[in-house]
Amino acid sequence: MRQLAHFKFFDTLSKKMVAGFIILILIGTVLLSLPWATPANVHTSLIDVLFTSASATCITGLTVVNTAAHWTTFGQLVILVLSEVGALGYMTFAVLLFNIMRRQIGLSTQLMVKASLNLERLSDTKSVMKYVVGLSLLFQLGGLGLLAIDFVPRFGWRHGLYVSLYHAVMSFCNAGFDVFGDSLQGFRNDPYVLTVTMILIIAGGLGFLVWRDVLLYHTRKRLTLNSKLTLLTTFSLFVIGFVLLLITERDLELLPTGMSWVNRTINTLFLSVTPRTAGLITMPTQGLQAGSLLVIMILMFVGGTPGSTAGGIKTTTFGVLMFQSIAQLRGRRDVEFSHRRFSQENINRALMLIFLASIVLTVATLILTQTEKIPKGFGLEYVLFEVLSAFGTVGLSLGLTPNLTLIGKIVIMMLMFIGRVGIFTSLYALSRRQARVNLIRYPAENILIG
Question: What membrane topology is annotated for this entry (predicted)?
Fold first, then answer.
């Protein structure tokens, strides 16, 4: 790896992170191309194998083939491992391996971990790593145990434990792959499974830094501004999404007519949680009302928390812009929250992220409208939904994924990659120029806005 640092492509942390994910995707492609990954006489094209590997590594869950039927247990486990490594970050596993081998962690490795987990201080690297690994094991093993209570009696010991493990990992990693064949549509009348799944999804999407902050609250007696903003934004989106979906899907015609109001409410609750980058569903998305699709697309665009298993523009970006708008409407110069003010650098970064994301999504949507066939009864939402799902690393689809053209698959793979790695990291990796300080500042002048 040291030899690679001499090449110009590996001269920055962003380029190293991008290269690491690309290598991981290629390794997954090779493993899924092996004859043991699919049943005998089942052929998978190279682009479909690459797409599946990219979707798993980028913890998205969009699939061109049915995971349960197309892949063998070996193939499914490859997807599971790719999702786990993709969710926690390959550098997390590299550091874990260094610790097992009792080798010293180099400065370059620590810097990459710091960047991948959005840490503020380099000194936090080792302590945060312990929380990342510990919390991941705690939630996933806990989820396995809770799900096994339902799945083992239903499927038997062997398959029940396998399904429990698979579903617990995919739920926590917000990956969206399933070995049931129809996501969770067969469990729409099982509030226990849906509740456990929602807890795992929220836990994974909340972020390791926030969990660390919450767990240390009893000693510190305070939360960081990042954690406060994350918790507030997450809770607000959760409640607003739930209420809006109750309104737009008040009849819930996609659910059985004899379903109890408790189960119908939990299914609506699940529908408001899963667009936050999980990709699991209890009802076919093709039958949802137009208003519901709009709500889901907004939730997919926002996504989860920085340093979590989620994609999208992130809750903190949304929160900063929300409070900036409130400050502007009140005529205040500073953007304040919880007796603190956001730096202008934070605000500028949030605005730039929204702008760049809008450009990327617009270009991708335009390309797909030209390359993909939109079925009768659908409009622009058929393509836009897929684009937002890929960018938010969600995994929901209106049915376009299995029917994507070659160009369409490439576009969606690029969106999944950008959504997982991040727009800034992706652009910095492509940039050849280093940031420089302007020695000249020109006079300021106002222009008309709005």
Answer: Multi-pass membrane protein
Phi first, then psi: give them for residue 336, nearest 5 degrees: -115, 150
Q: Which residues pair with 337 in a beta bridge?
A: 340
- In sequence order, the 6+-apart residues with CB closer than 8 A to the CB of 406 are 47
Longest dimension (CA), the chain: 74
Residue 365 burial (C-beta neighbours within 10 Å; 0-12, 13-18, 19+): middle
Task: Check pLDDT > 70 for residue 147.
Answer: yes
Instruction: From 138, 131, 148, select the one nearest 207 (Cα to Cα).
Output: 131
Distance CA 316, CA 305 (A): 7
What is the C-alpha end-to-end distance of the chain, expressed in Å? Answer: 51
Q: What is the 3-state secondary structure (H, E, C) of 353-393?
A: HHHHHHHHHHHHHHHHHHHCCCCCCCCCHHHHHHHHHHHCC
Strand partners, 184: 182
* Amino acid symbol at 18: V
* pTM, entire model: 0.88
The stretches of 156-258 forming alpha helices (DSSP H) are 157-172, 191-206, 208-215, 217-220, 225-248
Adjacent-strand bridge partners of 341? 336
Q: What is the pLDDT of residues 51-104, one digit of tens each?
A: 999 999 999 999 999 999 999 999 999 999 999 988 877 556 555 555 555 555
Q: In what helix (H) or strand (E) does residue 340 lie, and over which residues does it extend?
A: strand 340-341
